[in-house]
Amino acid sequence: MISKKVRELFVSLMEATSNNNTSMVRYDPQTDNYSGLFNLTVLNKFIDEGVFEVVSNDADGIEILMNNRDDFLSSFASGVKEARLGRDQYYADYNANPFAFSVGYEHFMYMNKKPKNLEGYACYGFD
């Protein structure tokens, strides 16, 4: 099971776009960098594990690069898809990135508890 704070960190990245002014995190498609305000305790854990690299850290926030981003996105979307189909989370064992699969799976299950939240919701894998 993924902790709430860890799920929130990764979901904030999956919700980020370059034109979403309501999000705390923005994504720059030119550089593949994410910038914004993050839970530093959780972020630093994943920086130490090599998931992220800090690009800049200033008064406006932190800018990070996600290593192996394409694998993460694919696995996250697979987790969302399997949850949507009503399949088991054990499919994570067969995925290239079981952690990302589990984050996507658990995020879909969390969002599905309140289906109204899914109306017009923009998040990677939720199209």
Report on the structure:
This protein is α+β, with helices and mostly antiparallel strands. Helices cover 41% and strands 17% of the residues. It has four helices and four strands, in the order αββαββαα. A four-stranded antiparallel sheet has the order 1-2-4-3, covered by helices on one side. It is globular and about 45 Å long. The two termini are 24 Å apart. The mean pLDDT is 89.
Name the descriptors:
4 strands, alpha+beta, single chain, 4-stranded antiparallel beta sheet, 127 residues
Put simply, the count of helices is: 4
- Gyration radius (Cα, Å) is 14 Å
Strand content: 15-25%
Distance N to C terminus: 24 Å
- Give the rounded overall mean pLDDT: 89
Task: Output the strand order for the largest sheet.
Answer: 1-2-4-3
**Fraction of residues in helix:** 40-55%
- Give the SSE string: HEEHEEHH
Largest sheet: 4 strands, antiparallel
Given the helix and strand composition, which structural class is it? alpha+beta
| Number of DSSP strand runs | 4
Shape: globular
Low-confidence stretches: none
Write a brief caption for the model.
The chain is an alpha+beta fold and 127 residues long. Helix content is 41%, strand content 17%. It starts with a helix and ends in a 15-residue tail after the last helix.
